Amino acid sequence: MANFLSEDQLTLEKKQIFLIGMVIENAEASSSLETFQEFMREVIILLTLFLLQVLLAITGYSLRFSTLVFQQMLQPIKDIIIDLQKLDAEQAERFELAANVDKKSSPEIYNIRTVIQRLIQIMKAAKDAYNEGSDTQALLNYAQAKVLYHELGNMRGVGICESNIGTIHLKNNHYAEAIQAYKAAINISTNELNELNEFDEKDMKDQKQDLPDFHEQRMANLNNEKIVLANRMYNLAMACVFESQHTKNQRWQSAIDNFNIVRKMDQGLNMNEHRVILIAIELAKIYMHIGNIPKAEASLKEAEESLIERAFETLDIPRIILENKIKMVKAAFAKENGNIYEAVELLTSVLVSERENLRN
Fold first, then answer.
1. Among 321, 329, 186, 155, which residue's Cα sits nearest to residue 254?
2. DSSP 181-200
3. Number of Cβ within a 10 Å radius of residue 42
4. Which of 74, 112, 130, 237 has the highest local Cβ count within 10 Å?
5. Per-residue b/e over 217-226, b at no fewer than 16 CB within 10 Å?
6. What is the mean pLDDT of residues 248-266?
């Protein structure tokens, strides 16, 4: 059975056809312009894609070429960084500069490397002068090296120079100068430790690659810096003791404070077993000098017990030397208490022991 449209539906269809016809009519009136515009759009798109491909190709080759050139430019800088890292070591005289740099092509880099070369020569000369007993020349060399380290921004190197300057002054009984130099070196070590701790708090969470290696290296750097700081504080304490003994400047409390800090640091680092004994002996002498006999006796007892506990350990200092130091403090105690015979007996024992040690 055929399907016929009703009058209403037919009328609707006519309206739709009329509307469509109006659209088609309008389209036909502007077809030429739109066709041209569409063609131009396609051409522009094709040209754009082509140009992008060309640019990508050129960029790829340019990046390769630029990378090669950049690497060649960076190589002298990398060499300088290596040299600067080497200069952090206290025995800088063992190291030599890497490759030579052309003065004309890289004058700035050449000048920096010249400073580094000069610095290494000065550090060699300073150590040679110190070993030969030329303390004045060694002081001059370390002072020069300190200035160059400052110019390079290497504060660790400055700290090394300050510490060595302090040691030379202490050797020559210049106690005030030694204390000043040791304090400067300690401040540098303290700042280094603070920077390492701040770096851990701020940036460790941002380290995504090789985090275990990073953490291990950081802990090693922290321990090394703590060892350096402890050594410098021990030297400062000894300088305070010598100045208190030989001048009117009484720095006993400063010596006590530094010795106690060093003792805690050594225990935390689990090292310098002999220094635990030395510090106890020095504290016993200090307390006896300032009249605090109970603390003096307690420190002397600690020194004896520490030496007994390490009876089967290999110490950096010969055991006989530590034993004789303890005997000498005991002799001083005996003398203070009026036991002259006991004091003489202890000192005689020390002399016999030292004589036998020299023969061996």
1. 186
2. HHHHHHHHHHHHHHHHHHHH
3. 10
4. 237
5. ebeeeeeebb
6. 93
Max CA pair span of the chain: 146
* Helical pair 175-203 and 155-171, crossing angle rounded to 10 deg: 160
Query: Which of 64-73, 117-126, 237-246, 319-328 is predicted least confidently?
Result: 64-73
Distance CA 271, CA 237 (A): 18
Residue type, 254: S
Residues 6 or more apart whose CB falls under 8 angstroms from that of 215 comprise: 204
Q: Check residue 271 and give left, alpha or beta (phi > 0: left; psi -120 to 50: alpha).
A: beta
Distance of alpha carbon 267 from alpha carbon 186, whole angstroms: 19
Distance CA 325, CA 322 (A): 5
Mean pLDDT confidence for 30-55:
57
Q: Is the pTM of this model over 0.90?
A: no
Mean pLDDT estimate for the chain = 75
Lowest pLDDT segment from 20-29, 145-154, 221-230, 295-304: 20-29
Q: What is the DSSP letter of 1?
A: -
Amino acid identity at 171: K
Check if the beta carbon of residue 277 is closer than 8 Å to that of residue 316.
Answer: no
Number of separate helices (H) and strands (E) present in the chain: 12, 0
Tabulate helix, strand, coil % of the chain (nearest 5): 85, 0, 15
Residues present in the chain in total: 360
Query: What are the contacts of 181-188 at 24+ separation with CB within 8 A?
Result: 182/232, 182/235, 182/236, 182/239, 183/236, 184/159, 185/159, 185/160, 185/232, 186/229, 186/232, 186/233, 186/236, 188/155, 188/156, 188/158, 188/159, 188/162
Q: Using an 8 Å Cβ cutoff, are 154 and 121 in contact?
A: no
Write phi, then psi, for 292 (nearest 5 degrees).
Answer: -95, 80
d(CA 82, CA 69): 20
